[in-house]
Amino acid sequence: MKKINLVLSSLLFIAFFAACSSSDGDNQAPAIKLIAPTEGAKLQIGKDVHFDMEVADNEKVASYKVDIHNNFDNHQHSRANKEEKPFSFNKSWPVNQKQAKIHHHEIVIPEGVKAGNYHLMVFVTDEAGNESHVTRNIVLVTEGGEDHHHHHEGE
């Protein structure tokens, strides 16, 4: 009887594993090509951010999220002085397409935030919940930042 139970348990495990890894289960994370901002980009305080990215998935990209936070002390996150106002940003946007070219200027770095080193992270999630991310080291500057004039296709 123990052999039969062991065989039945093994067959159930194999059937469950096969069902979870079948072709109708999406386990492939989406692809991200973050074009701008580039690694080390200097972004000017008081201006918008030129955001340009291509995403694709084998099924459908559900959404993407942009998270910007300071990296003043290499993530030891000690307390800042009261007069310092580190910039932080966290927002998600829907995509609902198999592939998309995303271009916008919706991220604005307000006046009065602390200049310095920041991380810009982009998380892309597909409909099955698979996620990919890209991280850029950026620098917020008060003047002389990245040239904000850029060419759009078709202009």
What's the CATH C level?
Mainly Beta
- SSE pattern: HEEEEEE
What is the CATH T-level topology? Immunoglobulin-like
Parts with pLDDT < 50 across at least 5 consecutive residues: 15-23, 76-81, 146-155
Total beta strands: 6
Helical amount among residues, as a percent range? 10-25%
Q: In what range is the share of β-strand residues?
A: 35-45%
- Average pLDDT value? 82
Structural class: mainly beta
How many whole angstroms does the radius of gyration measure?
Answer: 22 Å
Largest sheet entry:
6 strands, mixed
User: What is the domain tally?
Assistant: 1
Distance from first to last alpha carbon: 77 Å
Shape: elongated
Count of runs of 4 or more consecutive helical residues: 1
CATH architecture: Sandwich
What features would you describe in this structure?
This protein is mostly beta strands and 155 residues long. It has one domain (25-141): Immunoglobulin-like. It is 12% helix and 43% strand. The chain is built from 1 helix and 6 strands; from the N terminus they run H-E-E-E-E-E-E. It has one helix at 2-20, and strands at 31-36, 42-44, 51-70, 89-104, 116-126, 131-141. Strands 1, 2, 3, 4, 5 and 6 form a 6-stranded mixed beta sheet that branches. Strand 5 (116-126) and strand 6 form a beta hairpin. The chain starts with a helix and ends in a 14-residue tail after the last strand. Mean pLDDT is 82; it is low at 15-23, 76-81 and 146-155.
